Structures are given as C-alpha cells and as structure tokens.
Amino acid sequence: MGKTRSAPTLNDVANHAGVSTATVSRCLNTPNQVVEKTRVRVMQAVEELGYTPNFAARVMAAKRSFTIGAIIPTMDNAIFARGLQAFQSELRRSGYTLLVSSSEYKPDIEKEQIRALVARGADGLLLIGHEREDEIYEYLKRHQVPALVAWSYLPDARQTSVGFNNRDAMFELAQNVIDTGHRRIAMISGVTAGNDRAQTRVQGVRDALQANGIDPCKMRVIETTYEIDSGANAFRELMSRDLRPTAIICGNDVLAVGALREARRTGVAVPDEVSVTGFDDIELAEIANPALTTVHVPHREMGRKAAQELIAMVNGTSKGVSTCIKTQVVHRQSLARPQTDA
Amino acid sequence: MGKTRSAPTLNDVANHAGVSTATVSRCLNTPNQVVEKTRVRVMQAVEELGYTPNFAARVMAAKRSFTIGAIIPTMDNAIFARGLQAFQSELRRSGYTLLVSSSEYKPDIEKEQIRALVARGADGLLLIGHEREDEIYEYLKRHQVPALVAWSYLPDARQTSVGFNNRDAMFELAQNVIDTGHRRIAMISGVTAGNDRAQTRVQGVRDALQANGIDPCKMRVIETTYEIDSGANAFRELMSRDLRPTAIICGNDVLAVGALREARRTGVAVPDEVSVTGFDDIELAEIANPALTTVHVPHREMGRKAAQELIAMVNGTSKGVSTCIKTQVVHRQSLARPQTDA
DNA sequence: ATCTCAAATGCAAGCGCTTACATCGACGGA
DNA sequence: TCCGTCGATGTAAGCGCTTGCATTTGAGAT
C-alpha cells in the first residue's frame, strides 16, 4: 500500500512473479510456450496486481491490434445498426474488437475518422459504399490496412465489397410499382453526391421506367437528407403540384415513413390516393401505417459475411472476394393499384 | 520510388525536412513554438510524404489520447443513437474523438469493452446506467480514467451522472394513466437484473399506484428484452388473461410499439380496449399507430451536457458534477379513458 | 554420473512518439 | 565589443510491450 496505486505494468508483474517480462508476455499471448508451473505463478501475479496490458504499447510492439474499425454514415436510425451488430458478433467470435464511428454522411468527417482508426492501429476497416476520394484508398494501401465495402455491390468496382446491388434491387421494386399500374411515379432520394447507393437506386428506377416505355426524364426526383422530417417535406412538395404522382418511390424506409407521416397529417390516403415505397425493410417499415412495401435487405447475413471476409483479408488468407447479397421486394399495404380516375 | 512504400514515420518527415523529430513533433502539436519558416518546411514534408502520426506511439508517449469511449447496451434501435450523436458532436468541438461499442445488454461484454477502451488509452468513458460491479469502478479509478454515467440520474449515486430520474419520470406517467381513469394496470418491463433504469421505472409505477391507493403487488409485470417482438409476445400474454388490464405501461417505446403491433394483429383496439404507453419518445413513438403517449427525454441535451462534463473531468477542471435532466410526459392517442364496461 | 538436445526462459533491441533538458545563435544593452 | 537573455532547435531518455536470439534447464539416453 506504500506504493502509488497506479496501473501495474508488465514489469511489475514480472517482478512480482520473479520472471522476465518476456515470460509474462508469453504467458499472456502464447501460453503453451510456458511451462505450467511458471504460468500459474505468473497468472497469479497478474490477478493479484489486477494487471491489464496497455494496448498502445502492445499494438506498437506487435504491429497488430485485433481491432477492426467501421465508419458508418449515421447511428441515428436503424439502417446500419442491425448489420453492424451481426458484424460485431462475428468479429468477436474471432477475437476481434469492433470500433465504430459515424461520419454523419460527410466525406470530410469520414476521412478524418478513417485516419483516426488507422492511426489507432485498426487491422482492417469496414466502409459503407464505394464512393470516396482515391486519396483515401491510397492512404489505406500505403498503411496496408485492408478495407471492405459493405451495403453496396458494384459489379465493376475496384474495392472488395460485400453488399447488394442497389440498382437491381430498386429496378425490381420499380418494376413492381409499374406492374401495379402506376405511370406517374416520383421519387424521394437521399443525397446522391458522394453516395453511390443513392445514385444507383435512382438509376434503378430510371432504368425500370425506360424498360417500360416511360420517359425517365419526366420523373420528378427530390433529393434530401435521410431523415424523417426530410421525407415529410419532400412528400408535401411533391403533392403540392398540379399533376400529383400516383406512386412515390423513396430512397429508404426512413424517407418513406416521413412521407407517410405527412400523408396522414395532411389527410392524403395511402395507398388510395398515392402509393409509397421504401428500401431496407427496417423494423419501422412493418410498424408504419400502412405497412411499407419495401426492399428487404438481409442485413445480418451481410454483416456476418463482411466480417468473415474482412478477417480473411486481415489474416492474408484472402486477397478480397466480393459477394453480392440477394435482396427481395416485400409487399405490404402502402403499394396498391392507382385509382382509375387519377 | 526505390524505397518500400510503407507508412512514413516522424523520423522520415524529420529527415525530409532536415530537422529533428522533436521539431516535427512540435510543429504538429504546438505549432507556435516553431518559427514560421521551419514550420512551413516541415508541413510541406508532412504533405509530400502523406504522413499520419501513429496513434499508439503518441498515446504511449503523451499518456493522453483525446479519445473518449462510450459503451452502450445496443445500437439496434434509436434509444441511444440520438443522445450519442449529440455527445459526439460536442466532443468533436473540443477536439476529442468518440469510440463506441455495444454490450448487447450483457455485463460481461460491457466489462470487456470497458477494459478494451481503457487499454486503448481512452481519456474518459461514457457509461449507461449506474449498476455494475464495483470491481469495474475500482479498475477505472486505478487507471485514472474518469467515467460519466448517462441515461440515469440517481440522487444518492456515487458516480457522476448526467441523466434523468427514471423513477420520477415513470411516476409522473403512471399518475397520468391513473388520472385518466385506469385501475387495472399492467406493465411490460425491460430486464431489471443489472439495469437500474429498468428497475427504477418499475418502481416509479409501483409508487404511483401506492400513492393512489391501488395495491402495487397486484400489478402484473412481465420482464423481457427490449425488442419489438418481445413487446408483442408480452402483450399477447397479458391480454390472454381473464381480467385484462385496461392500460399497459411499457418500459420503453420499443416494447410499446411491439405491443401495438400485436394489438393490431390480433384486432385489439388501442386505446379503446386497452391503453398503451411507452418511454423515451423516439421517432417510432410518433410514427406508431396510434401514436404513443410516452415520456419525452431530451436526448440531445443530455448528450451535450454529458460531453461537456466528461471533458471537464478529463481536463481536471471538474471533480464531477451530476445533472438531472427534466423529462416530460407527451400525450398522444394511445392513452385514453377506459371503456366504462371494462 | 555424464552428455545431448529440446524446451523454457532471459536479454535486449526496437516499435514511433513526446518532452525535459542541453545547446545554439541572434539581438540588445552596457 | 562582449555578455546576458531568451527563443528556436537538437539530444536522448523513456512510454510498455513483443520477439529474435542467446542462454539455461532438465529429462532421457548412454
């Protein structure tokens, strides 16, 4: 009790157990290299002193942190939560720790966070979407930190990715909307600048229109942030026009729910007066009233696969294999045949 | 290009700029100690080499990381998202980086994550709720890492906290329910073991019943995980009894939304046949149909205040001052007077 | 008892950075 | 002109750990 009660170091443990620091280190990291008797003594010392290794020192010496970093655009809604949870569970199974930070959909912040995570010794990174400055990818390469892109799969992308084909998924949904009888279709999209997921989703809708002989240029598209309020505002905007759309395809469920809320508030009947669709199939989609027709994304599966692949890349087991996850359109009440007189 | 293209170090920059490592370090950390001419030269070298400081080394040498860690029970829903976002923004303003990890409501995992964050050199920690092993608090003290408890304020708690009084908030809500005419009240609570927030919320309801001459022991309480499905199951369970409650108070909005979903599925009218209330006032509460009567928690304010206080503690400016945030009952359609014949 | 050879352990050199202290140099005052 | 000062810069000692290599130990073989 005479000593200052500050965090004990490897050295303290070594002294306490009467061995060298090397032995203590081996006890902690490669126990089977140490004979049982010694090991027990060391572990007891560890216990008695309440020792915890200093990570910074360990990372520095070992050049390995068993930490994976993830930068997601936002924690403000459930879009990324579920997939990330699965990602984390899978990492834990392999002894990795996950560190998350959010970029608020801002490229600058994302860049900063990536640097922070790399500087902190992350062995690998999970990134959302493909689009970002080349500089960042070069930086990662230079630091030899493998990165895995998720939530998006682009057939011709450089980066390894585990995600889904946003364009195809949206195409399928739009086809459904068209098949249901809609011709005057509008869209509420997320901000497309720097966001390939948002871009390709819009593209998917356009392609579907084109494929069905509808002029994609005539489609009204409002771009806005992925927030409930934004969805509501966009909805109001779209419905204030002379020729109202009969269906509004939203870039994700959050926007769609915002639209639904505004519809209810202003007494617009969904789906009688206008159909609304979402994307992601988060819990909100089923809870919403009317329940949302949307694109179901198997987030958990994606998270799990992403973790497995990223770990393989970190271990050098894999050079990076992309996976395209299948999505599926889910029919619920928010989409219906347009009124004939519309 | 002859050299191996691996991450440049301080030393490389120093050589490149023709100065010592000390000077480079000073340029980066305390620029005004370096004369402009030198500084420019150094910064240019930094730029040319694409240098990023190695965090582990920096933390080790400086014993300061400008990193704050937060361990939240789950990222799976919006309960913590909003407050955390505000927390992060405020930290950024002061030059701190936030690292988040989730414990999935499991004490063991939380403990592990706390150690991971501390070992990683976190200057301070944000913890949710007061209740955890003493050992953890001792560990933090030993490592001299200040911790701030949020989402809960307990008048007589040891730990510094910035949160709200869960008992009082729930008391007020329950009083409202009683005032609305309900007598047969049931509750769907989160798991109370190791969770003081869940515990005190139940206590709040019990106290309100008591205060109104209703025997709290007669109240049916179902404990379950904080998931939509769990809420739904609990609702079914409660409504399958002979004497159905006229009001169900839920431990949070997620459980309440689950109850609402089950009600809709089974054709139970809310609030006509049974009233339902939530807690937190996340977006879901307003979206739900019928919209939820709930307790509004000013999450952003809490996050901001928590960040400010924690930074003060880290800087040694404050020894830790607790703040109790005011909550407010929000009336929406899910709560109404019980049918007279009930 | 002696020798052999793994297995177990110790030694010590870093990992990349910060910082106390030493040194250098320029400028102003005597 | 010389010295004192003070600001700018360099020197080098760690920070706590891992790990290649050297050394010691002990069990089995002779």
Q: Helix-strand pattern of chain A, N to C?
A: HHHHEHEHEHEEHEHEHEHEHEHEE
Q: What is the largest interface, and how many residues per chain? A: A-B, 54 and 53 residues
| CATH level 1 name of the largest domain in chain A | Alpha Beta
Class based on secondary structure composition and strand pairing of chain A: alpha/beta
Number of helices of chain A: 13
**What is the 3D shape of chain A?**
elongated
Task: State the major sheet of chain A.
Answer: 6 strands, parallel
The CATH H-level superfamily of the largest domain in chain A is: Response regulator
Kindly report the average pLDDT value of chain A: 93
CATH architecture of the largest domain in chain A: 3-Layer(aba) Sandwich
Tell me the strand order in the biggest sheet of chain A: 2-1-3-4-5-11
- Domains counted in the coordinates of chain A: how many? 3
| Multimer state | homodimer
Kindly, what is the distance between the CA atoms of the first and last residues of chain A, rounded to a whole number of angstroms? 84 Å
Q: What is the total tally of β strands of chain A?
A: 12
Show unreliable segments of chain A.
Answer: none
What CATH calls the topology of the largest domain in chain A is Rossmann fold
- Strand proportion of chain A, as a percent range, falls in 15-25%
What is Rg of chain A?
Answer: 26 Å
